[in-house]
Amino acid sequence: MKAALESPREASLDPRVRATLVFLETLVRTPERLGQADVDAVRAAGVSDDAIEDAAFVCVLFTTYVRLADTLAFD
Question: What is the pLDDT of residue 5?
Protein backbone atom coordinates (compact mmCIF):
# COMPACT_ATOMS: atom_id res chain seq x y z
CA MET A 1 0.00 0.00 0.00
CA LYS A 2 2.73 2.46 0.95
CA ALA A 3 4.60 1.83 -2.32
CA ALA A 4 1.40 2.47 -4.28
CA LEU A 5 0.96 5.87 -2.68
CA GLU A 6 4.61 6.87 -2.88
CA SER A 7 5.19 5.83 -6.48
CA PRO A 8 2.13 4.49 -8.28
CA ARG A 9 3.98 4.33 -11.60
CA GLU A 10 6.44 1.79 -10.20
CA ALA A 11 4.34 -0.16 -7.69
CA SER A 12 3.12 -3.65 -8.44
CA LEU A 13 -0.56 -2.89 -8.99
CA ASP A 14 -3.48 -3.86 -11.16
CA PRO A 15 -3.12 -1.71 -14.32
CA ARG A 16 -6.51 -0.08 -13.67
CA VAL A 17 -5.49 0.94 -10.15
CA ARG A 18 -2.11 2.19 -11.35
CA ALA A 19 -3.65 4.29 -14.14
CA THR A 20 -6.22 5.74 -11.75
CA LEU A 21 -3.61 6.64 -9.12
CA VAL A 22 -1.39 8.29 -11.73
CA PHE A 23 -4.41 10.27 -12.96
CA LEU A 24 -5.26 11.35 -9.41
CA GLU A 25 -1.66 12.27 -8.68
CA THR A 26 -1.72 14.63 -11.66
CA LEU A 27 -5.09 16.00 -10.56
CA VAL A 28 -3.71 16.84 -7.11
CA ARG A 29 -0.12 17.90 -7.83
CA THR A 30 -0.38 19.60 -11.23
CA PRO A 31 -4.04 20.07 -12.15
CA GLU A 32 -3.14 22.60 -14.83
CA ARG A 33 -1.45 19.76 -16.73
CA LEU A 34 -4.41 17.39 -16.60
CA GLY A 35 -5.83 16.85 -20.06
CA GLN A 36 -7.54 14.51 -22.46
CA ALA A 37 -4.46 12.29 -22.75
CA ASP A 38 -4.64 11.61 -19.00
CA VAL A 39 -8.26 10.52 -19.25
CA ASP A 40 -7.49 8.44 -22.33
CA ALA A 41 -4.70 6.61 -20.46
CA VAL A 42 -7.08 5.64 -17.65
CA ARG A 43 -9.70 4.49 -20.16
CA ALA A 44 -7.07 2.47 -22.04
CA ALA A 45 -6.29 0.65 -18.79
CA GLY A 46 -9.91 -0.50 -18.66
CA VAL A 47 -11.42 2.02 -16.26
CA SER A 48 -14.95 3.18 -17.07
CA ASP A 49 -15.93 6.81 -17.34
CA ASP A 50 -18.16 6.43 -14.28
CA ALA A 51 -15.25 5.04 -12.25
CA ILE A 52 -12.96 7.87 -13.40
CA GLU A 53 -15.59 10.40 -12.38
CA ASP A 54 -16.12 8.72 -9.00
CA ALA A 55 -12.37 8.64 -8.32
CA ALA A 56 -12.00 12.31 -9.25
CA PHE A 57 -14.92 13.36 -7.02
CA VAL A 58 -13.60 11.41 -4.03
CA CYS A 59 -10.13 12.85 -4.58
CA VAL A 60 -11.38 16.43 -4.85
CA LEU A 61 -13.54 16.10 -1.73
CA PHE A 62 -10.75 14.48 0.26
CA THR A 63 -8.14 17.07 -0.68
CA THR A 64 -10.59 19.87 0.04
CA TYR A 65 -11.33 18.47 3.50
CA VAL A 66 -7.62 17.99 4.24
CA ARG A 67 -6.83 21.57 3.22
CA LEU A 68 -9.68 22.91 5.34
CA ALA A 69 -8.57 20.82 8.30
CA ASP A 70 -5.01 22.06 7.93
CA THR A 71 -6.11 25.68 7.56
CA LEU A 72 -8.52 25.58 10.50
CA ALA A 73 -6.32 23.31 12.63
CA PHE A 74 -8.83 20.48 12.90
CA ASP A 75 -7.52 17.35 14.60
Answer: 75
